Amino acid sequence: MGMSMANRFDAGGVLGDLTTAREEILCGLFAQVLGVDRVRVEDSFFDLGGQSLRAIRLISRIRAVLGVEVAVRTLFSNPTVAQLARALDGAGNSRPRLVATARPERLPLSFAQRRLWFLDRLSGPSPVYNMPFAWRLEGSPDVGALESALRDVVRRHESLRTIFPVVAGQPYQQIVDAAEAAPELTVVETDQATLPSLLEQAARHVFDLATQLPVRAWLFRLAPQEHVLLLMTHHTACDGWSMGILVRDLAEAYRARTGGHAPGWPELPVQYADYTLWERGLLGDSGEASSMLSGQVNYWTSALRDLPDELALPYDRPRPVEPTDHGGMVVVTLDAQLHSDLATLARQHRTTLFMVLHAGLAALLSRCGAGTDIPIGTPVAGRSDEAVHDLVGFFVNTLVLRADLSGDPTFADLLARIRETDLAAYSNQDVPFERLVEILNPARSVSRHSLFQVMLVSDNAATGRWELPGLRIEPTPLGHETTKFDLSLFVRPLYDADGSPAGIRGTFEYAQDLFDESTVEALAERLTRLLRQVVDDPSRPVGEYEVLADDERQRILHDWNDTGRAVPGLTLPQLFQQQAARTPDATAVVCGGNQLSYAELDHRANQLARHLVALGAGPEKSVAIALPHGELLVIALLAVLKAGAAHLPVDPDQPAGEVEFMFTDARPTVVITDAHATAAGLPAAGGPPVMILDAAGTRDALTSVPGTALCDDERTAALRPTHPAYVVYTSDVAGAPAGVTVTHRGVINYCAWASATYRVDGESAAPVRPGLSSGLAISSILLPLLAGGTVVLIPEGVGGEPLTAFLDGAAGPVAPVRLKPSDLRAMAGHEDRAADRKTVLVIGGETLPTSVARDWSHGGAEIHREYGAEECTIGSVAHRVGDESGAVVPMGRPIWNTRVFVLDSLLRPVPPGVFGELYVAGAGLARGYLGQAGRTAQQFVACPFGVGERMYRTGDLVRWRPDGTLEFAGQLDELTSPSPDSGAPVRDGVASPQEERLCELFAQVLGVDQVGVGDSFFDLGGHSLLAAVLLAKITERFGVELSLKQFFSNPSVGAVNEYLGDVSTGERVGPAATGE
Questions:
Q1: Lowest-confidence region among 27-41, 288-302, 650-664, 873-887
Q2: Model's pTM, two decimal places?
Q3: Distance of alpha carbon 154 from alpha carbon 231, whole angstroms
Q4: Containing domain of residue 83, as a range?
Q5: At which of 261, 278, 295 does a domain end?
Q6: What is the SS3 assignment for 141?
Q7: Which percentage of the chain shows pLDDT scores above 90?
Q8: Which of 320, 523, 820, 1009 has the fewest beta carbons under 10 Å from its own?
Q9: What pLDDT score was predicted for residue 1068?
Q10: Does residue 559 sit within a domain?
Q11: Peptide bond into 980 cis (omega under 30)
Q12: What is the CATH number of the domain that holds 1047?
């Protein structure tokens, strides 16, 4: 046998064979932490079942036994006993040990307690930080013994008898004397039917942190031999690890009390109060370069720089200004084979199962629209000193793990990034999350969690099963009625008796303010689907894994795009000619007192068309029209189309520079105008030839030309549906103009759909307001003319009043009336004008509030929402307003012969509910941008879902609703470059006397020399606890209580002054002044 450790010294008193001694100690520590009988020097910690939590426990044991500090990264890089023993040569001395110490008169809160106390004050008392656990007891428990046992546990652990009084806005820990600490045990007689509601009611009990012990219990008696025990603590006194200690001690105390004596526990070496003081001493001041806190803060400041304020998750509802704590739960189970495969993947990449699941969740969120910068919170035990391993208290800390998915990495590469990120975070885990928020000072909002909104929790807490004499105990699940974050995933690996993987139980907890259950169920299914693909081939880019189910892919690519309809394969002149032949005497155009029949309009347009052909106009050429709103404008438009040329609209009021650019770019054959428009500023020289339509010479020339229909032999070339019908100019986000070239085919497809959808026929009158420089305006004339209706030109220079007058005077159906939501609001009060006749209102432009649409719908109008871009020929998506439930009317579905796709940055379909960029394909696509092949290729891209087909990238962010309608979010360029919110405006000028006093209070609390009226409390270094101190001083000075929630909404002197009102006169302005 070898010498004992005590005898391994050479003659000089130096420990001989030092590495072997370390190996022996480390083998014992490995075995203790891993719960195995024996460990060899070549055994790997992670092959034996080690994971992140056990790694941290091992490091704590090494610190206590060997007195050296080991980084988590060191263990991951040296996972065997032999490797780690050699690595300890470079290890530094361990941190100071936690021991009992003298306490100040007023004991401060720990950083973790401080944050929960603040949240309690900010949002008001709430059950959201309750920790309830329930068990079904078969047998007859000794209630007296149970009550005594609970009291024993509370006396043993000071954290369970600590309350938080407040003096001058500052809370402190007050430990209730052990003899006086009597936790409540409430016995309730009930039955199985009412038990669930009673459990829910008990779990939502609200603790008063200032006066009540943070622990209590209920015993529900269902029958003499059947009970349910609910034990609940507040999170300020307990954490997941602590619950295992609490029930263990409770069981031991119960056994002792049923035996007629008190539990014979040894004295705990330290209490939570000692930890609080040790924590502050250990971390020091972040301003001290030598302090542990300083080094770790430097890491976090760098690691979390430019962190996104909020993840773009697939929410079902907008985030409320004041969220509730209502939560839901969805369970997902990964089978034993997948569990085994994931564990194998972790070993192959020298990571842990948690890291693999972290990478999987980050990849899922990224594929579901969250971007490539994914911050996820995760709890760590926070018990870095051995002295607290058997102590109940709130030690858990929260780390922010930032996943980088930029560049579409392979899953293996992502896992390597995650490994580095997680190891670095574990090595810097001592900075309390609450302190980190104060230092980083992120944009604050009462509606969301700071720094992250998604939590990933490795749920290894062993609080479910315990034993009491004479009782059979089974855990009873409680519904997740509350939630702290937008989305949390709890994962619990399960193992068979031999230690082999038996599956992973996952629980998604979600905020019901934001998500429907079905959305979270879909997320859970997508996570399972993605992980199965990952284990099959981790070398694939994350973007290649399929997150859609087969039926989903079929639905969004095909079923919701099943829009094929037959439309005439003709040109616009042919269709108009047919209509004019059918109804020659019907009224085609009305403008004031002037009217044109279809025959008259056709005749005059044919005459002008022949004149234009004689001037060189024809297919693949353009003719500019710069005419005021009137019947001549309609004649000219039809004439250009009949000549085969493309219509180039020019607004007579357009700046001369813009018109000159259009003429240079489009090179029109001729400009049709009148004397008034010419005088208004068309280019005087160097431009195309000008035809003054109302000049005597032009009128004489036209009268000598036949008014019969033109044929292709008369045109410069045969006219086909693929030829340009018009060119309209639009600008990109940088303001660069380009001419969008739209074909006859696209216009005819839209008009065929619109005439059927809006029921435009020979009885319809369609009002057209001034302005003909867009495709929408052009279609407002062509749509009724191709369907036999009447175009009614509304006079220039007027708003909504003549339109309502037109509605009053219309004898028959009115369809369509094209408006913007702002027009509807301007016409409020006239909704009943649509009651006496069919009135179809088509709303485009900005989003349409449901309330506005509902008012007009109730008034008798038929309301349609239409979305489109010039590049897609007027309208491509539409929706008829019905019984809408959302705040805004959805965009709708694709029109005839149109397909729409919601894609991510790599042109992959995103799942329903996930925002992506809208792409449009089909008959309505424009040719492109006139003379700009590069820009055309950039915006009109190859469609991956159709052979030889193009699609247009709109730049709009949308998502599919579950019913197959599209929902609009905004434009990508606006959403990716948001302007910072400057908050409420602050009045300029000299501060009032009351504002001066407030500035003094701000400066006093913040420890600064000067504060301005518009300065933000947090920008000047304020944090949550100081905010409470400031409000206490304001109450003391002014006699008015302000809520923390109101203060957080705008924490400036000027805003606080507004909330206070004029205290000298008793006037109150804001709701905070009444304590609301």
A1: 288-302
A2: 0.85
A3: 13
A4: 21-88
A5: 278
A6: coil
A7: 61
A8: 1009
A9: 43
A10: no
A11: no
A12: 1.10.1200.10
Is 245 a member of any domain? Answer: yes
Instruction: Report the C-alpha gap between 393 and 382 in whole angstroms.
Output: 11
Lowest mean pLDDT among 350-354, 359-363, 638-642, 1041-1045: 1041-1045
Tell me what pLDDT residue 71 has. 85
Q: Residue 418 in contact with residue 403, Cβ under 8 Å?
A: yes
Element (H, E) at 841: strand 839-843
How far apart, in whole angstroms, are the C-alpha atoms of residue 618 and residue 642?
9
- Per-residue tokens: 472: 């059979």
Among the ranges given (302-306, 763-767, 1058-1062), the one the predictor scored with the smallest mean pLDDT: 1058-1062
Q: Report the distance separating Cα 221 and Cα 140, nearest Å.
A: 9
The pLDDT, as a whole number, for residue 7 is 29
The C-alpha atoms of residue 979 and residue 987 are separated, in whole angstroms, by 21
Q: What is the total residue count of the chain?
A: 1076
Is there a domain that residue 931 lies in? no
CB 671 within 8 A of CB 626: yes
366 and 409 part of one domain:
yes
In this predicted structure, what is the pLDDT of residue 982? 34
Residues 467 and 362 in one domain: yes
Q: How far apart are CA 1035 and CA 166, in angstroms?
A: 14
CA distance 874 to 281: 69
pLDDT > 80? residue 898 = yes
Euclidean distance between CA atoms 109 and 107, whole angstroms: 7
User: Does one domain contain both 437 and 314?
Assistant: yes
Residues 491-500 as b or e (16 or more Cβ within 10 Å = b) = bebeeeeeee
- Type and span of the H or E element at 865: strand 862-867
Angle at 725 between CA 721 and CA 730, to 5 degrees: 135
pLDDT band at residue 1074 under the 50/70/90 scheme: very low
Lowest mean pLDDT, pick from 503-517, 631-645, 1052-1066: 1052-1066
Same domain, 265 and 314: no
Enumerate residues 6+ apart whose C-beta is below 8 A from 1: none
Check residue 14 and give its pLDDT: 30
Distance between CA atoms of residues 944 and 937, nearest Å = 15
pLDDT score of 679: 54
Residue 267, Cβ neighbours under 10 Å: how many?
6
Residue 585 lies in a domain: no
- The answer to whether 926 and 774 have CB atoms below 8 angstroms apart is no
Structure tokens at 952: 């247009």
For residue 883, the tally of other CB atoms under 10 A from its CB is: 7
Residue 120 CA from chain centroid, whole number = 25
Are 189 and 221 contained in the same domain? Answer: yes
Amino acid identity of 218? Answer: W
| Tokens representing residue 331 in the block | 């369970």
Query: What was the pLDDT predicted at 1016?
Result: 86
Residue 329: closest CA among 478, 136, 127, 205: 478
Q: Residue 620, Cα to own-chain centre: how many angstroms?
A: 47
pLDDT band at 976 (very low <50, low <70, confident <90, very high): low
DSSP class per residue in 622-647: EEEEE--SSHHHHHHHHHHHHHTPEE
